[in-house]
Amino acid sequence: MRALKHNVSIGILVLAPSIIAIAIFVYGFIAWTVRVSFSNWNSFTALLRGVYKFVGFRNYIRLFRDFRFQTDLWNTLFFTLFFLAGAILLGLLLAALIDRGLKGSRIFQNIFLFPMALSFVVTGTVWSWIFAPGTLPMDPQGVNLLLHKLGLDKLMWGWYTSTQHFGRFNVALLPVIIAAVWQLSGYTMAMYLAGLRGIPSSLIEAAKVDGATDFQIFWKVKMPLLKPITLSAMIILGHISLKIFDLVFSMTGSGPNFVTDVPAIYMFELTFRSNRYAMGSAIAIVMLVMVAVVIVPYLIGSLRKES
Amino acid sequence: MKRLMVVVCVLFAVFIFAGENKLEIFSWWTGGGEEEGLLALFDLFHKYYPDVEIINAAVAGGAGTNAKAVLKTRMLGGNPPDSFQVHAGMELIDTYVVTNMMEPITWILKEMGVLDKFPKAILDICSYNGEVYSIPVNVHRANVVFYNKKIAEEIGMTREPITWTEFIYYLKKAKEKGYVGLALGDKNKWTSLHLFESIMLAELGPDKYNALWKGEASFNDPAIEKALEIMKELLEFINNDHAAMTWQDATRLVFEGKAFCNMMGDWAEGYLKTLGWTPGKEFGWFALPGTQNAFMVVSDTFGLPKGAPHRENAIKWLKLIASVEAQDVFNPIKGSIPARLDADKSKYDPYLTWSMNDFATKALCPSIIHGSAAPESFATALMDAINTFVSTRNVERTFQEILYIAEDNGYLTD
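Above: the input entities. Below: the structure tokens describing the complete assembly.
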């Protein structure tokens, strides 16, 4: 009994520094941000005076009435949907191809994984050159130049400079989604590949003995077993896309009429360019809630499984 | 024994602080001619004060967007640099002067006897309650149109346009010949407000424009609505990939012979020169129509924060940059004109001489987007409104939006 107590206290002692650091630098600052978001600190002078004036949900109400913020939320929604679907489907496809063990699949496995090693800023800059439309129709650039050379002039369009939209979906988001999918589909591929390699061969063989086709084996045997992987991939990609900043910022900025704007960019500009700290904090909290809605159920689920 | 320790400690401290003969200069001059200009100033400083060690605390990033954030953190944390670069006007006054973080430096200019060597209007922009708070080193003009002379010849432009009708006539001609009329690169959003503020200046006229910021004129003025109408007309002639371009890309369109002209601050002149063009030969310039009698000022200045660690050296620095010698060393390299009126004109190219003459004679007006006229919250909000306007081109709604923004920031709107 005594030895156990001793062990526990040593454990606490060892963990204490990180617990304290996390308590201050993560949860303490979240609490502080919440406090700021309910204040009137919307100028440098107000911040410096340091007098706290509680204004309730005023900053939040202003935000949700703001055209730019509304656009941001719709953009985030569509970006997340298409990005998740794209990265997961492409990742699964690549994993299935590599898993067949064709000649050279090892090399391709690495090639597909490489983009993940780049930073979003690099990806953003390069793709912004690729999708820069040029002055249409006389002087196309990037992808448009390629289409022009192929004689597909009809397919040339403004890419991320386009202000067209279907309902609330801005088509200018498509190039950004393509860049994001390009960067992270290799990562989902690696996750699925690990899952596929972990499926016991006895299961596959049993299915074969029962006369299942390859197609049936993939959808009826492998896919159900890969479910937890799909879920983790969705969680990981989902929280990246809800918080995305660097890729969009370096690739397109907020775009004409905010067609490619996301909450993180607006937060940055409000806080560090306009000195409207309370409004910036309110966006930070909205983003935190969005991510929490995705992640908390997952965490609860995995905790339950463990116990 | 204890006493000895204390003595040793005190001596040690004295030694450290006495040995620290430094000067920390904060700026965002890290690229091209800017950095060279700054280093030339440092060399000049060393000539007079060889034993002072200069710390170059420059933070990279166009127009100082990153540097300003770093500076705010340092000022809030009570760790100011000895002197820092800041745009003349509200960027300094609204952020640091009204919050009582700067020392007035009128006495430095008085002591040097140069108070009247700067135009009164520019010192007014740098002042608050009758005290000057920063010393302007250089001046850029924002309301200039640079054009490709070869294309101008092709479309039959014999004389630079001075009215909107003439200007739009030539833009139309350029468009008919297959050129982009007016190159715009608003990927970073500020360039469209840069264009709009000068159109606003043209329509309001310099007196009314300047009165807006003093709370003596109202934003609810048909001239501002008219400015939006004119902007809308000009937008018919821009390149359709403007949202994928920076200002350099837009200026380059003129250089590559794809666009007739580009409305930009005269840093574009420096850029065209680095691309290999000679002012007056391959490219010409004129003030944006309607603003011939005005000079939209973008000026970099240096001030003295309270609690500067090496105050004595900072004062030496400020005295140096206020001198003609320093201004004539810095500006030809940076490609801007000196803020002093008695500078040596022979050191500057034809464009800059033209600009110097106008600077001395025309009405000086503070720029919005470059931080002089209004607080940063006003400038960024207006920038967003104009960014939307470039796509929607809805005059009525944007005008309403401008009124809201003005009201939010305490300007007259009735």
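Note for the figure: Chain A touches chain B at residues 42-45, 47-49, 67-68, 128, 131-136, 138-139, 141, 158-161, 163, 252-259, 269-270, 272-276 (CB under 8 Å).
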